[in-house]
Amino acid sequence: MSLEIPEELANLEANGGIYAVWMLLQHLGIDAEISQLIQVCGHDIEYGSTTIGLAVGLKKFGFNVQFYTEEDPDMQEQEKLSYAEAKALDLPILPAIEYSDIQKAFEQNKFVIVYYDTLEGLGNHSLVYDVNQSEICFFDSFDAMAKEVFEQQRKVEGICRQAIVVDANHI
Fold first, then answer.
1. pLDDT given at position 1
2. Residue 158 phi, psi dihedral angles, 5° rounding
3. What is the number of alpha carbons within 13 Å of residue 171 lying toward its C-beta?
4. Residue 109 placed within a domain
């Protein structure tokens, strides 16, 4: 699948979360303006997107969304606002899921966006392209990541093992 990334997205600072949402929408044949995604997902030019903000944005698009997380002891102001919005939208906030749960959701044809620390030490949101018992692949990378490495990178301080599961079959 070859897609041309819009210039506005390519030039957007800290664009990983918006890219993951845009890729999911593209996969479903939904063409959304980048400015609209920035707005509904609460993207901040300096800090990027929060996982809960992405989940709220997808919920606003009408998707059946579930948000998974550990407790976040250092919640930023934008996250607090997104959590309040999630509550108003009846978006379920559930305990963090395991690798096997991510794999199971993917095998059930659900879309999964995960938050993890890259090997370069940057928090990153990625839409899962493929996952099996030994490795996981993302739409924004050509390299598979070993399960053990991914699990390690999800446990880094501040990551909170967050994931978004979208059931596009039940909007």
1. 46
2. 90, -10
3. 8
4. yes
Domain coverage including residue 55: 7-167
Instruction: Determine if the pTM surpasses 0.70.
Output: yes
Q: Rounded to an integer, what is the distance from CA 87 to the centroid of its chain?
A: 18
pLDDT over 80 (residue 93) = yes
CB atoms within 10 A of CB 60: 16
Phi-psi region of 118 (alpha: psi -120 to 50; beta: other; left: phi over 0): beta
CATH of the domain at 162: 3.90.70.10
Give the confidence band of 3 by pLDDT, cuts at 50, 70, 90.
low
Query: Three-state SS across 51-115?
Result: HHHHHHHHHHCCCEEEEEECCCCCCCHHHHHHHHHHHHCCCCEEECCCHHHHHHHHHCCCEEEEE
How many domains, in total, are found in the chain? Answer: 1
Residue 141 lies in a domain: yes
